From TrEMBL:
Cross-referenced SUPFAM superfamilies: FAD/NAD(P)-binding domain
Residues covered by region (Disordered): 1-20
InterPro entries associated with the record: FAD-bind_Monooxygenase_sf (IPR051209), FAD/NAD-bd_sf (IPR036188)
A Pfam family per the record: NAD_binding_8
Designated name of the protein: L-ornithine N(5)-monooxygenase
Family (UniProt): Belongs to the FAD-binding monooxygenase family.
């Protein structure tokens, strides 16, 4: 080996001209948990799930949840019509982190679901952050302070105020803002007209008992309300333009057909079962039962493919089921079987609905409505049906644009981009959670964010977890805001188009899953399953984002390094300083040094 010349110096190493000017770092310790603020709009399932998880996953967060209703619950607060209940088993229609062994019915009524989410909000402290009977009426992004400026109306006081928040999360859901049917003459009807989402319990007896009642619509709410009100009415006229594939109940392997035939409300869960599930000895059994139910929501994906053997078998099975439930009545069967593929739109279990159509009190009318008079409904073939009450079960608007102005970085209202006639014309977005030009704006389980497997509450948890990771990224480094790039959004949008190109959703049905009949844009779905979405979104692709730095970091992106110390060193707590040490049995090499909550 050659000798080293200790007297030799490197001009390149010590030439000040090749070295950067020292950056004046702040003297404060690195703080990964800078103060941040967030507003969540909506206190239904999505809003409560998001609020609970943001509270847990984002330290130093100031959180406010606005909802225009007087109670939490979202669609389960808004929809209170007779027979309203979830068609997913109760023990699968709950948050994974808040199992409830006390459900009283296999398919919970809307009131019990609402009470569950109200109790969950209280259990996890979200109730302290709620501002009920407050409606967001506009939101404008201000780049200068990197905040959303949100105007809120107090529906009790009638006053308006503006609040600022760094992050804005829309969790308003899809099943709200009732859509009354646009029928000529409806406003001239002299009897009661009530939408299922605007039900008046106090006048139910006056509008139902021994009355001639019309039910317009045969979506999920129409199929539920019809058998529920049938015993009370003198005559029921059911106006249904479309045909829907009615499925067996989503029963997780438990037989519910007997309950459907004898009791549209499903069946009660025995008290001894509830007590056992709630007991210490019953925890294992309850977990196994929850797994059994939830597993059924991750199967059957093959039936989504257009023209597949699985889809053909599904058509055959559903046809046989419908035939059996109408006692093989050929006239009814001819009116009920759709001409489009199953899974073009959501299957509807509808306990008791098909059986009710065979009741002699029911007129099943498929001819389109021409007009409503003071006392009747007239169809396009000239028939007139005298009625005393009209129940409109006509659902909700099929769009994903906010009901208020939402103005982004460039000064454009998102409704002028996504809305009908807008620059894009559909809710083009990134990963079903963000959109370019709208920094720090997120949405939960809306356009392109809903996988066609799994259960709604867990899907909300997935999205909320992703949002929390994005907020922590901004919080922990020298950023004020982030938004997806247009290129990344375009690529994701093309993937969505490609995924649904060979799916049954391209068939001729009209559905709230998509923009219109035939192979129109699928606006609801994530391009994959729930597990697919979980794996794909577990680690955000930061290269897909554009970031706005905080003002103090304008000169150097690593301003957040601070003094080179962390709060742990300053506090000097030995347990915190050695938090990376655990017992040998607790070591998990897969997650070692990766948990964001750990100090090392």
């Amino acid at each position: 080996m050659g000798s080293i010349d200790k007297n030799r110096t490197s001009t390149a190493a010590f030439d000040r001209g090749n070295r950067p000017a020292p950056y004046p770092l702040p003297k404060t310790a690195y703080n990964a948990h800078q103060p941040v603020s967030a507003v969540v709009i909506g206190a239904g399932i999505a809003g409560i799930a998001t609020a609970v998880l943001l509270k847990a996953k984002v330290p130093n967060l100031t959180l406010t949840v606005y909802d225009r209703h007087a109670r939490v619950g979202g669609t389960w607060e808004e929809n209170q019509y007779p027979g309203v209940r979830c068609d997913v088993p109760s023990h699968a229609y709950q948050l994974s982190f808040a199992p409830n062994p006390h459900w009283t019915e296999f398919y919970a009524k809307g009131a019990e679901i609402r009470e569950y989410y109200e109790a969950t909000a209280k259990k996890f402290g979200v109730d302290k952050h709620l501002r009920l009977q407050h409606e967001v009426i506009s939101a404008v992004w201000e780049t200068e302070d990197a905040h959303w400026h949100i105007t809120v109306r107090d529906l009790v006081a009638g006053t308006e105020s503006t609040v600022a928040a760094q992050f804005l999360i829309s969790a308003t859901g899809r099943l709200n803002n009732a859509a009354p049917p646009n029928i000529p003459g409806l406003d001239t009807f002299q009897g009661a007209v009530v939408h299922t989402a605007r039900w008046d319990h106090h006048s139910a007896a006056d509008i139902l008992d021994n009355k001639r009642v019309a039910v317009i619509g045969n979506g999920a709410s129409g199929m539920q309300v019809l058998p529920a009100v049938l015993p009370r009415v003198a005559r029921l006229r059911h106006f249904a333009r479309t045909r829907n594939w009615v499925s067996a109940a989503f029963n997780g392997g438990l037989t519910a057909r007997a309950a459907q035939k004898g009791n549209p409300a499903g069946h009660a869960i025995p008290e001894e079962t509830r007590k056992h599930f709630a007991s210490r000895d019953g925890q294992g059994d309850y977990l196994a039962y929850r797994k059994e139910l939830n597993a059924t929501f991750h199967t059957g994906i093959a039936g989504f493919y257009a023209g597949s053997d699985a889809n053909a078998k599904l058509r055959k099975d559903l046809t046989a089921l419908i035939s059996e439930r109408v006692n093989h009545d050929p006239e009814l069967l001819a009116k009920l079987i759709p001409d489009y593929a199953p899974m073009c739109k959501r299957l509807t279990p509808a306990p008791g609905y098909l059986e009710a159509l065979s009741d002699p009190k029911v007129d099943f009318v498929q001819t389109p409505i021409a007009r409503v008079t003071a006392s009747s409904i007239e169809t396009t073939d000239g028939q007139s049906f005298a009625v005393d009450t009209i129940i409109t079960a006509t659902g909700f608007p099929d769009n994903y644009t906010p009901a208020y102005p939402l103005v982004g970085r460039s000064g454009t209202d998102i409704r002028d981009i996504w809305g009908p006639g807008g620059r894009v014309g559909y809710p083009k977005n990134y990963f079903g959670v963000m959109a370019p030009d709208f920094p720090n704006y997120f949405f939960v389980l809306q356009a392109q964010g809903t996988p066609f497997s799994g259960t709604v509450p867990v899907k909300c948890e997935q999205t909320a977890t992703y949002i929390a990771a994005c907020i922590r990224k901004v919080q922990a480094q020298s950023y004020a805001a982030l938004e997806p790039t247009q290129d990344a959004t375009d690529d994701f949008d093309a993937v969505v188009e490609g995924f649904f190109a060979d799916k049954a959703t391209t068939d001729t049905c009209s559905s709230w899953w998509k923009q219109g009949p035939g192979p129109s844009r699928v606006t609801l779905g994530w391009p994959g399953t729930m597990h697919h979405k979980g794996d794909v979104t577990r680690t955000p692709r930061w290269e897909d984002f554009a970031f706005q730095r905080r003002k103090e970091a304008a000169a150097n992106r690593f301003h957040y390094f601070g003094s080179g110390l962390t709060a742990r060193e300053e506090d000097g707590d030995p347990d915190e300083l050695t938090s990376y040490l655990v017992t040998a049995d607790e070591v998990d090499l897969q997650t070692l040094h990766e948990g964001w909550t750990r100090g090392y």
